[in-house]
TrEMBL record:
Signal peptide extent: 1-29
Family: Belongs to the intradiol ring-cleavage dioxygenase family.
Keyword vocabulary terms for this entry: Dioxygenase, Oxidoreductase, Signal
Originating organism: Geomobilimonas luticola
Domain Intradiol ring-cleavage dioxygenases: 54-139
Keyword Nucleotide-binding: no
Gene3D superfamilies: Aromatic compound dioxygenase
PANTHER family: DIOXYGENASE, PUTATIVE (AFU_ORTHOLOGUE AFUA_2G02910)-RELATED (PTHR33711), INTRADIOL RING-CLEAVAGE DIOXYGENASES DOMAIN-CONTAINING PROTEIN (PTHR33711:SF10)
The name this protein goes by in its record: Intradiol ring-cleavage dioxygenase
Tree of life domain: Bacteria
Amino acid sequence: MNRSPANIVRRAALPLLAIVISLAGSGNAASCRPTPQDEMGPFYRPDAPLRSSVGSGYLLRGTVRSAADCRPVNGARIELWLVGPQGQYDDAHRATVITDGKGRYRFTSNVPPPFYSRPPHIHIRVTAPGFDELVTQHYPRPGTRKGSFDLGMPPLPTR
């Protein structure tokens, strides 16, 4: 058995190389975890109007993907609601957007203000055939005028 330093390094590197190759073959699956659920809150109302803008000053965009295989979810229904500039929830600050063929969405609103002791946030509810409902919230970084929020949806269990 050859115990030269080069041979020892080669043998030690083989298991690491196998791990790297297996991870590379999995594509983006590791980055498509289900988005954590968050509270719906008491101000949700169904049937928000289909529109991509409820104001100006803040742009939120992202991609909805299957948490199982990272494929984009085409036609996902995203309901969004937030506090308006006057500090109240109202119908003028509710919207529904539908993802495009690549799972992308785009939503423009006012910069969300804090709501009582809560930090600025946008409520999000996502539904799509074959997937569990996702209820979460986007928390903009202070001082920003745009945000990116990709959403991972867990598929429904197969029977």
